[in-house]
Write a structure and sequence with these properties.
Mean pLDDT: 93
Strand order of the largest sheet: 3-4-14-9-10-13
Helix content: 40-55%
Number of helices: 19
Shape: globular
Low-confidence stretches: none
Largest sheet: 6 strands, mixed
Structural class: alpha/beta
Radius of gyration: 21 Å
Number of strands: 15
């Protein structure tokens, strides 16, 4: 598989290694895969006994076989995934694909752990090192810390927003011989994003420290999220005879894009349900429309490296046939009241706790029930985060508490950091020069 900028109509593309290391094309677009073969034979061969590790290793080999040997592909998957998603059946036609069984209880574990495992192997083969630059107020930082354990070629600079510093195992910190430099920035998230943007504009400095990003601008964060969809299908195919729909919170559209990439890889799926946003909504005919689709090429802003959205990737899937968008993506208007009611219904009907993003997904699915039932369909809710991460909101809605496992809870305990810097590029550059 090769990768090409979302703003290029055709071309030979670049390798996965190049795309993951140099994660933003020069033209300001986003790297997207060139699908040159079907994975149908692999997908239908797998079954409910096939482990998630095997699924990830096999599909890694199938997708990027020109770069990595089957042994390396298996190594990447084995090291990335000592954990697995779980598919829970809630009723005859409703399932929850739980993506919170990684070390931090956050769905990002799957993407970041795989990204780190791939990048570590690439760096070993190239005899290089790299540094991840990331803004976080909790979840992303926790995922990166866990993913970088025992990595020898990868380091990370974590910029925590004001008063959001979380506890990190002291052995992971760079001042103690680890590979994590964690600092609190005396500023807002947007100020931290701006620091990252300015640093990346300094091409010479970025190259000196081989800086890269672990957010969803990096295709290495998007590609592995194909695997949970295929995992779900291997568990579903003997439980349902009807159509299959996946429902998810829109977020920054990364999970939706990954689902569509799974579909382009020949995953049997009949539609993706999500909530409407300002950029993904219903047109006057009640069909899906992407706002970016109205912006002519050449007039689009460059991709924001610090806080990306995946609308451009979403649009690129449907470039050749816009009717596919209207027949494959089903947005629903989900209000705050709808979200709260969906959270209540999941608990009252199934005794199942949903975090707020998963409640949006369930609310969207409820709005599409006529479409689903007309096709004798089953719905798979993408349950992103452990409900314990939304304990306050859930207790307010349901009057019931849902606790995080202690192993996860300790990762989110706040900590007062002595190393506080101002939100400016000079402060971050100074730290990089001091520790790297």
């Amino acid at each position: 598989m090769k990768f090409i900028s979302s703003r290029v109509a055709n071309g030979s593309g670049i390798s996965f290694s190049e795309a993951i290391l140099n994660c933003i094309p020069e033209d300001g677009g986003m790297y997207v895969p060139i699908f040159d073969e079907s994975l149908a034979n692999w997908i239908f061969y797998m079954n409910g006994q096939t482990s998630f590790q095997s699924i990830a290793g096999t599909l890694t080999s199938a997708l990027i076989k020109d770069e990595f040997s089957p042994i390396i592909c298996e190594t990447i998957a084995t090291k990335a995934f000592p954990f697995s998603p779980e598919l829970k059946q809630l009723d005859d036609n409703l399932f929850a694909l739980e993506l919170f069984h990684g070390p931090t209880g956050c769905y990002k574990d799957f993407a970041i752990s795989y990204f780190a495992s791939c990048l570590e192997n690439i760096l070993i083969m190239k005899d290089k090192t790299a540094t991840i630059l990331a803004v976080t107020n909790g979840e992303t930082g926790a995922c990166i810390v866990e993913a970088l354990k025992n990595k020898t070629r990868l380091k990370a600079v974590l910029l925590y927003t004001k008063e959001s510093m979380r506890k990190i195992d002291s052995s992971c910190l760079i001042e103690n011989g680890g590979n994590i430099l964690a600092v609190e920035v005396n500023g807002t998230e947007e100020q931290c994003f701006e620091v990252v943007r300015q640093i990346l504009k300094d091409k010479e400095f970025s190259a000196q420290y081989n800086l890269t990003l672990a957010n969803s601008v990096n295709i290495g964060r998007i590609l592995p999220m194909i695997f949970p969809y295929i995992y779900a299908f291997t568990r579903l195919k003997n439980k349902t005879c009807g159509d299959i729909f996946y429902s998810m919170d829109a977020g920054n559209y990364g999970n939706l894009v990954s689902g569509l990439y799974a579909w382009k890889s020949s995953l049997p799926v009949n539609g993706f349900i999500t909530n409407c946003t300002d950029s993904l909504f219903l047109d006057s005919f009640g069909k899906c429309k992407i706002l970016d689709g109205t912006t002519p090429e050449g007039k689009k802003d460059a991709t924001d490296p610090a806080n990306p959205k995946n609308l451009e990737r979403l649009e690129s899937v449907f470039n050749t046939n816009s009717l596919l968008l209207k027949g494959l993506v089903f947005p629903s208007i989900v209000t705050e009241k709808d979200k709260v009611q969906a959270c209540k219904e999941a608990y009252e009907k199934y005794g199942y706790f949903l975090d707020m993003q998963s409640s949006l997904a369930y609310g969207a699915a409820l709005k599409q029930s006529d479409t689903i039932m007309d096709q004798d369909g089953s719905v798979v809710l993408i349950a992103r985060n452990h409900p314990g991460l939304a304990e306050t909101e859930i207790k307010h809605i349901l009057g019931k508490s849902v606790k995080l496992p202690e192993s996860i809870k300790k990762l989110y305990e706040k900590e007062n950091d002595k190393n506080i810097i101002e939100p400016d590029i000079k402060s971050v550059k100074k730290l990089l020069k001091m520790y790297f």
